[in-house]
Amino acid sequence: MGFTIEQESIVRAAERFARSVLENDATGHDWWHVRRVARTAEKLAVGGGADLFVCTVAALLHDVADEKLNASKESGLKKVGDWLQRQPLEGSDREHIIEIISTMSYHAGANPPMRTLEGRVVQDADRLDAIGAIAVARTFLYAGWKGHPIYDPSLPPRDSMTPEEYRQGKSTAINHFHEKLLKLKDRINTPSARRIAEERHRFMERYLEQFRSEWEGIL
């Protein structure tokens, strides 16, 4: 199963659009993150019987609309919505893509479950890029961009928080593992993604054990 000629043209246009917006991003939500998420979404879609075209376009555009990278969630969604309006898309596909993008964020764990299989696939693809070796690198990149320290024993991980506290509150790179990344394994939707998440989750646990040993000066 692949794309029609028209769908292929839209996918390539979405790639160019996403790259033009995110190529110079310094938060870990850059073009290469988007490319990885799109490729993972394609594989999960094919393996799970989801709509390949909707999954791919939603994955390519998901961070163009991210509220962390825009003045607001609304302005980010408008940017994507305006672009989609200029494409020769079925109205139902356009609405589906916007729905996925607008509800897939972690949002401090407050967002409801994804309504469609395609939404679950794209969300899983994005979350898999937040679990594992690349996720470790992205965590420290994002913490540096936010001005957060690597670790501060006087700042314990937050057990619960509002989306605003999650976005704006003071934290550390290491706390981010406990506040979000280690929770993602149990929020994966599809069986194939869950198997990948289990392995990557164990890698992060091993990394944190090594970090703690080195922090305490254990040789």
SSE topology:
Layout: H1 5-22, H2 31-48, H3 52-61, H4 73-85, H5 91-103, H6 117-128, H7 133-146, H8 163-168, H9 173-179, H10 191-215
Helix pairs in contact: 1-3, 2-3, 2-6, 3-5, 3-6, 4-5, 5-6, 6-10, 7-9
Write out key terms for the chains shown.
single chain, mainly alpha, Hypothetical protein af1432, 10 helices, 62% helix
Walk me through this protein's architecture.
The protein has 219 residues and is mainly alpha-helical. It has a single domain (5-215), classed as Hypothetical protein af1432 (Orthogonal Bundle), CATH 1.10.3210.50. The protein is built from 10 helices and no strands. It has helices spanning 5-22, 31-48, 52-61, 73-85, 91-103, 117-128, 133-146, 163-168, 173-179, 191-215.
Spatial gap, N to C terminus: 53 Å
Provide the CATH architecture: Orthogonal Bundle
How many domain regions?
1
The percentage of residues in β strands lies in under 5%
